[in-house]
Amino acid sequence: MPVADLPLVSMLRNRMQWNQTRQKVLAENVANANTPGFRARDLKAPAFRPDGSLAAALPAGFGVTQTNPLHLAGSGAGSPAEERQRTRFDVVPSGNAVSLEDEMLKAGENQADYQLAASLYQKSLQMLRTAVGR
């Protein structure tokens, strides 16, 4: 069985390819920040990536309950990415809807995700080499 066919290695390779494609889309958004009528684009996260919110990780109908009146109640706020989407600025008079701040935040998050996947990829290959005795 080739190493590239292992599920973990394959998933990490796909993740890094997705991050590379997303970086290209984000760079195009920044490059067109002054183009009249341009709208920022983004890629949807792949199915294997959790979005970080607790509600998405829980089954339907399962929620957090306050079992003691002294406990803090949940605020119901979404993830930071959802908050940024809600507070997005309006379209400027030229019709452009690109926020450089939002795009830079996305690019930074994307870079961190890529570095994590690359590190895990490298470590999993080192582990496989150790297992086969190299």
Report on the structure:
The protein has 134 residues and is mostly helical. 51% of the residues lie in helices and 0% in strands. The protein has four helices and no strands. The protein has helices at 7-31, 54-57, 80-86, 100-132. Helix 1 (7-31) packs antiparallel against helix 4. The longest helix is centred in the C-terminal third of the chain and has 33 residues, at 100-132. It starts with 6 loop residues before the first helix and ends with a helix. The model is unreliable at 49-59 (pLDDT under 50).
Keywords:
mainly alpha; 134 residues; 4 helices; single chain
Please provide a brief summary of the model:
This protein is an all-alpha fold and 134 residues long. It is built from 4 helices and no strands.
How does the SSE layout of this entry go?
Blueprint: H1 7-31, H2 54-57, H3 80-86, H4 100-132
Sketch the topology as an H/E string, one letter per element: HHHH
Number of helices: 4
Computed CA radius of gyration, to the nearest angstrom: 20 Å
Major pleated sheet: none
Mean pLDDT level: 78
Helix % is 40-55%
Which runs of at least 5 residues are low in confidence (pLDDT < 50)? 49-59
Q: Output the structural class.
A: mainly alpha
Strand share of the residues? under 5%
Q: Overall 3D geometry?
A: flat
Distance between the termini: 17 Å
Number of strands: 0
